[in-house]
Amino acid sequence: MENYRIDQDKGLEFGIYTLGDHLPNPLTGERISAEQRLHEIIEYAKLAEQAGIDFFSVGESHQEYFATQAHAVVLSAIAQATEKIKIGSSSTIISTSDPVRVYENFATIDLISKGRAEIIAGRASRVGLFDLLGYNLRDYEELFEEKFDLLLKINEEEVVNWSGEFRAPLKDARVLPRPQSGSMPIWRAVGGSPASALKAGYAGVPMFMAHLGGPAAIFKRTVDAYREGARRNGHDPLKLPVATAGFFYAAETTQQALSEYYPHINEGMKLTNGQGFPKQHFAQGADPHNIMNVGSPQQIIEKILYQYEVFGHQRYIAQIDFGGVPFDKIMKNVEIIGTEILPAIRKYTAKS
Amino acid sequence: MKIVALSGSIVGSKTRTAMDYTIKTLQEKYPEVHVTLIDLADYEIQFSDGRNYLEYEGDTKYVTQTIMDADALIIGTPIFQASIPATLKNIFDLLPVNAFLNKVISMIVTAGSSKHYLIAEQQLKPILSYMKAQIVQTYVFIEEADFYRKDIINEDVLFRINRLVEDTVVLTETYTSIREAKEAEYGF
């Protein structure tokens, strides 16, 4: 776990991620400017650091209703604005980028942040960027696999010799600068299906598993598939971290949390995915075994500890800001995490 | 209430004729219902390549978006080679897995032979159920002999279309009000 800068003795890590969505607040119908949204994301990261949160990440999406297309630039600003929180992408769409340029960017962020940068590479759940950036959607799988392999190779080898289908060959190429410790954590983003998790395990790379709702037991299959894939190909699952990521919203009572958060999720998903979130499913989110961490602080603590028991994962990453959640509510959530949730989670999961 | 009347084939006239009757009945009996006809023959629609429907363009985007925005669908389909036409199946393939959640769907089937009667039951209904539709169980099955040029000459077919329209609207109203009452109980 040391290669991935994770100290398990300190217990389950707690992170925050934003997709960088730029959606109207459904309660007011108004949308802040992209400029304000970007500044709020940077401020969000600073507050997360002050609250003692371990990790903060920003996603890449190239379409309407998003503001962090240049997510590496945003992360660079966050690197400058913070001192100790780990920072990463959630995720970097490696399929439609040049792995050399991605590595240069993130190695630079790692140096600016003095060794805090991580890459989470994904395949994109929204595919508009293939047209925008000049790629063929038919190569969806292969583009990812080839470029992700190259990214890993660049991380492991300072001098790279490589050839493939989607990029000019590299001959004795030195990809610079190097990260502070020579390499940096690179994760594979998995959408929750066991098939994709198996590939991550097989490659022996850490898995960042995103999930919406449903019983934790369903996602346990994905985690199991990941570890099984790793074992099958000679990797030790005990050395490979797993992160889970999904909706999070805390309020005084569970009812209040559901009620405040639901319009943002429902309306936000309508605009970005074309379908709202069924209220019936959202109501089930309050169940202690449901993976959606929405509720009172105490209920969320119990849920996260339950998930920890089921998955034995190393990092949980909360998505709070989706769908135009106003900044004062985001601040309130960060405060609840820092004062109530983190201390409890560390108390129960840290070895001391 | 928004209802889309989807005519699922790009050839022939029987399904479209039946859909025209259906829309006329709907408009006469329920003038407050907003009905949109989508005859696939009028659109250039691409094959599904797996992307989210929001990311298609042109006719494909218009047709999928209009269907997604509807409260109910009346699907009209002929039977080709003992199945639904590929054009109609493509519409299903373009949509998300749970596209018909909270939507009511009824069916009108036209066919050259009575031997095709169970095809909607055995091939179309399973697709609609998989996509989470509330199905009006009884469909209208119309044969070649019921048409003369572009008219329906079997009065019983008109009665059945009448009942189908009524069932579609009643089930949509009922289902919507039950769901709304249930959702109100959640208290958020």
Automatic annotation (TrEMBL), chain A:
Keyword Ribosomal protein assigned: no
GO cellular component annotations of the record: cytosol
One Pfam match: Bac_luciferase
Molecular-function GO terms, alphabetical: monooxygenase activity; oxidoreductase activity, acting on paired donors, with incorporation or reduction of molecular oxygen
Keywords: Monooxygenase, Oxidoreductase
Statement: the UniProt record of this protein carries the keyword Transmembrane: no
Matching InterPro entries: Bact_Lucif_Oxidored (IPR050766), Luciferase-like_dom (IPR011251), Luciferase-like_sf (IPR036661)
Domain Luciferase-like: 13-309
Protein name, per record: Luciferase
UniProtKB/TrEMBL annotation, chain B:
The organism's place on the tree of life at top rank: Bacteria
Protein known as: FMN reductase
Occurrences of domain NADPH-dependent FMN reductase-like (ranges): 1-144
Cross-referenced InterPro entries: Flavoprotein-like_sf, FMN_Rdtase-like_dom, NAD(P)H-dep_FMN_reductase
Keywords, sorted A to Z: Flavoprotein, FMN, Oxidoreductase
Source organism: Pullulanibacillus pueri
Lineage: Bacteria, Bacillati, Bacillota, Bacilli, Bacillales
UniProt GO MF annotations: oxidoreductase activity
